[in-house]
């Protein structure tokens, strides 16, 4: 090619006469640092009737390839001392493209068969049907209670000898979605919770989207330290995730780290899995979030290879040293009338499965270090087996666990939203009040259809429920699907309430950190109310009703919010859970609720208390700082400078301090209630044992 890069190593390369670029465009390119800029906050997406394919001529394609090759050449030249070294590196890069011997691709393929690095390939997996908590989580609960006892006594200000393990409230921290904004602000909230002692009293920590990224980094690269995680953020987030030179640098200077990052896509490719943009996004994201950067002090070691296996986070939970992490995703189940959706280029994906009606919904799934599955489908597999093909409840192949890089992309794949979701996100950014009103009326006619179309395909995995024998009704749709498409859970609810309501976890207090956009009008509580009604869960407080009453008392305008709101599960007058049936059969109203089991005894249903922290401005902290209007806090922004990280995390810390004493009071009150219930129960049991002992004596006499 006449435009082939000149292989010269000079401090100031002279301009070539063949260079058609203007001096101004060259200076601009140099000023940009040869980085690939992301598009605006959101792509401009039309409402298509058929897939649109951009038309590029061969000349256009060759020009883009040439530009990229020239930039890669310049990046390499900056990192080698001699021309011979340059050619050595070029050969190495070319070898990678050719997937030749000694390439990262071949190294990954070889490692997939190494049972010393992937011990799970020696095991077969089966689907566990039912909704009981798995034995590993039960063991974790017992171990965690022992570890929490001292910390809980200190947090509520009593002697450790006064605390019985069974009385300690089961506390869950819940982080919302919202990209880097949620990841950083949740870090601030949890840092404050750690300093106050609450984190050490926590049983579960659950996340959606960006908060999942935070949890994953805390358990891996952050070395279970929020301080180290913060320092990593300050160094790692200042470069856009699409800045390819940083990845080239990683490949050239540390191929071992590059191999860990690429394992996920290589494994899917080698097994002929469906690759989507989400997989590429996760790979690039991992190169930012899971690799240590220079200047991180004692945090400067490359990440442990085991950290790329989510199941290995059990190393920190098996003995109760850390809360159990819960990651969430959803699958969009579409109506029966939708056409085939698997063919390349289609907008909608649902594996060509028909339902009995025209409804569509999001099915929630959770992943812990122990299991992946859903309470509603009553089906679970070991986390180390996620990514394998299953038929009839049994795995039919032995491959390594799905790489954490792929999972990070799946957890935070908000860009695979439906057209309706895109419109809701773009609407406040591009339209004034008058225009949005008329546009809403126009869009309303198409809204139902827009809620079914995903312009970008979600992440695709083999379906562990495929041909599952005797599935429950909720699992029948999935049992016919070879693949399962998983989305960011924020498409349904941006707070991970559902896995925390699962029977067997018996959560007493949920502390929710909400960093959602448009936080004054979020529908998360209405959605949660719909879920608990559908599932027959009686412990959940009627939050949407209370919030509606609060809004009605206002004189118009957006909802007036406070830095902490508390909702108790004992205030719902229309729920059976608020009326206790005692052992004597008398109905009464108390903080404890239950149903008669028919044997004269009540099945206690303990209420849940929600402590809600919305991410809103704080006049006592950088009074003019509003994360809802700052461009760097946008959901789709992936470049945050170190001082901006500190600013946003600091807001989370300060806001938590505003509600700390409220949290302390709720936990102490819950502890006193559970203690009183236990003492009463033990007294009744002693009485029954005494009666049982006396009766044989009277019979003999």
UniProtKB/TrEMBL annotation:
UniProt entry keywords in alphabetical sequence: Hydrolase, Lipid degradation, Lipid metabolism
Stretches for region Disordered: 1-43
One Gene Ontology term, aspect cellular component: cytosol
GO biological process: glycerophospholipid catabolic process
InterPro entries: Acyl_Trfase/lysoPLipase, LysoPLipase_cat_dom
Segments forming a coiled coil: none
UniProt key word Cytoplasm: no
Top class in the EC scheme: hydrolase
Biased composition regions of type Basic and acidic residues, renumbered to the chain: 8-33
Pfam families noted in UniProt: PLA2_B
Keyword Hydrolase listed: yes
PROSITE patterns registered for this protein in UniProt: PLA2C
GO molecular function: phosphatidylcholine lysophospholipase activity; phospholipase A2 activity
Enzyme Commission identifier(s): 3.1.1.5
Known catalytic reactions: a 1-acyl-sn-glycero-3-phosphocholine + H2O = sn-glycerol 3-phosphocholine + a fatty acid + H(+)
Domain PLA2c: 119-701
Family under the similarity heading: Belongs to the lysophospholipase family.
Protein name: Lysophospholipase
Annotated organism of origin: Modicella reniformis
């Amino acid at each position: 090619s006449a435009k082939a890069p000149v292989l010269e190593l000079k401090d100031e390369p002279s301009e070539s006469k063949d260079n058609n670029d203007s001096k101004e465009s060259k200076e601009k390119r140099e000023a940009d640092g040869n980085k690939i800029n992301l598009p605006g906050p959101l792509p401009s997406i039309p409402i298509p009737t058929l897939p649109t394919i951009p038309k590029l001529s061969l000349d256009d394609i060759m020009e883009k390839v040439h530009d990229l090759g020239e930039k890669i050449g310049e990046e390499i030249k900056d990192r080698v001392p001699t021309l011979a070294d340059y050619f050595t590196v070029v050969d190495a890069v070319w070898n990678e493209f050719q997937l030749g011997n000694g390439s990262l691709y071949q190294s990954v393929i070889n490692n997939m068969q190494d049972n010393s690095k992937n011990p799970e390939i020696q095991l077969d997996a089966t689907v566990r049907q039912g909704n009981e908590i798995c034995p590993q989580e039960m063991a974790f609960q017992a171990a965690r209670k022992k570890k929490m006892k001292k910390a809980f006594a200190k947090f509520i200000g009593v002697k450790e000898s006064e605390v019985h393990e069974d009385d300690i409230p089961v506390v869950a921290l819940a982080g919302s979605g919202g990209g880097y904004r949620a990841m950083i602000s949740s870090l601030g909230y949890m840092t404050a919770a750690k300093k106050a002692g609450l984190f050490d009293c926590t049983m579960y920590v659950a996340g959606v989207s960006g908060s999942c990224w935070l949890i994953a980094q805390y358990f891996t690269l952050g070395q279970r330290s929020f301080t180290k995680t913060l320092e990593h953020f300050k160094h790692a987030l200042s470069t856009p995730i699409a800045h390819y030179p940083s990845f080239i640098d990683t490949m050239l200077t540390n191929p071992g780290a590059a191999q860990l990052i690429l394992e996920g896509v290589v494994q899917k490719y080698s097994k002929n899995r469906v690759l989507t943009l989400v997989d590429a996004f996760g790979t690039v994201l991992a190169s930012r979030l899971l690799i240590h950067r220079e200047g991180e002090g004692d945090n400067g070691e490359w990440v442990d290879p085991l950290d790329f296996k989510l199941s290995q986070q059990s190393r920190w939970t098996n003995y109760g040293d850390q809360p159990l992490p819960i990651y969430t995703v959803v699958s969009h189940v579409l109506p029966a009338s939708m056409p085939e959706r698997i063919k390349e280029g289609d907008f909608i994906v649902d594996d060509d499965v028909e339902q009995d009606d025209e409804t569509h919904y999001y099915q929630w799934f959770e992943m812990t270090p122990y299991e992946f599955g859903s309470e509603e489908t009553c089906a679970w597999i070991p986390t180390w087996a996620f990514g394998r093909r299953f038929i009839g409840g049994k795995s039919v192949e032995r491959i390594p666990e799905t790489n954490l890089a792929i999972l990070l992309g799946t957890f935070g794949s908000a860009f695979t939203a439906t057209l309706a979701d895109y419109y809701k996100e773009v609407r406040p950014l591009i339209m004034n009040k008058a225009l949005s009103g008329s546009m809403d009326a126009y869009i309303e006619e198409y809204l139902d259809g827009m809620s079914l179309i995903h312009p970008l395909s979600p992440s695709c995995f083999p379906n562990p429920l495929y041909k599952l024998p005797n599935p429950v009704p909720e699992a029948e749709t999935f049992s016919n699907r070879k693949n399962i498409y998983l989305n960011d859970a924020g498409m349904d609810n941006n707070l991970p309430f559902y896995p925390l309501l699962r029977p067997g976890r018996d959560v007493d207090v949920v502390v929710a950190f909400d960093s959602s956009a448009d936080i004054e009008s979020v529908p998360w509580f209405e959605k949660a109310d719909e879920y608990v009604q559908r599932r027959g869960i009686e412990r959940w407080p009627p939050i949407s009703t209370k919030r509606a009453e609060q809004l009605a008392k206002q004189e118009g305008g957006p909802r007036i919010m406070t830095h902490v709101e508390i909702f108790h599960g004992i205030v719902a007058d229309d729920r059976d859970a608020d009326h206790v049936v005692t052992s004597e059969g008398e109905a009464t109203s108390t903080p404890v609720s239950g149903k008669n089991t028919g044997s004269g005894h009540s099945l206690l249903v303990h209420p849940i208390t929600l402590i809600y922290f919305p991410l809103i401005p704080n006049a006592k902290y950088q009074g003019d700082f509003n994360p809802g209007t700052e461009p760097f806090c946008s959901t789709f922004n992936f470049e945050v400078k170190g001082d901006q990280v500190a600013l946003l995390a600091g807001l989370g810390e300060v806001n938590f301090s505003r509600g700390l004493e409220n949290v302390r009071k709720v936990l102490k009150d819950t502890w006193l209630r559970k203690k009183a219930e236990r003492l009463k129960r033990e007294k009744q049991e002693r009485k029954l044992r005494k009666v049982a002992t006396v009766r044989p004596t009277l019979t003999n006499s």
